[in-house]
Amino acid sequence: MVQSDLRTYLPPSTELPDSDDIPVDNEDQNLIPNVLLFLLNFIWAKRQDWYFGIDMGIYHTTGVHPRVPVVPDGFLSLNVERRKDGQSRRSYVTWEENDIVPTLALEIVSWTPGGEYTEKLETYRKLGVLYYLIYNPNHWQRDGHQPFELYKLIDNTYQLQLGEPFWMPEVNLAIGRYQGAAGGIQQELLGWFDAQGKRYLTPEEKAERLAVRLRELGEDPDLL
């Protein structure tokens, strides 16, 4: 079946499950992508041409079957509608997104290995995802890799990139690790950085720094 004929039989998003229904086995697989999305909502508050999905099925025509999705822990697509036709997406269906594939895919390695360095890497390569980030803070020694590995698709091959935070000119952001707080708990997180390597702060962090500065100047921020 040629590609043009295949598209005639591709199912609409309303007929496709939104994920693979496999539960995550650690809370960071939900927490860290949500922190990245939360930050993007402020960094790109005036933009409507991007979408960040979390634990959502990506349906495509480069795998075993169009009805079999790949489900990254997080992914970023550019030059797409912030809300598809003004509504929330149930899944990300490439043939309903003008064949735009994610620019960045994120996998967080858990206690149970999930083929992040093998099968999923090959899936994202065939799909054409430009950047593939494998975050492995707890099991990197077990797996014989580094905790933070970012690959870029060059000449149809993923090549490991050096430097952190790593600048992605196509995204106009860098991504890297930092020590921060989520829900009042200090831990390592992933964040967005500018071209100079300065991390974008959350509104709460900005407010805390402003309060510290005001106290240094003899002002009580609680009275303002």
From TrEMBL:
It holds the Pfam family Uma2. One of its GO terms (molecular function) is endonuclease activity. Keywords: Endonuclease, Hydrolase, Nuclease. InterPro entries: Nuclease_put_TT1808, Restrct_endonuc-II-like, Uma2. SUPFAM superfamilies: Restriction endonuclease-like (SSF52980). Residues 1-22 are annotated as: Disordered. It comes from the Bacteria. Residues 36-163 form the Putative restriction endonuclease domain. This is Uma2 family endonuclease. It comes from Leptothoe spongobia TAU-MAC 1115.
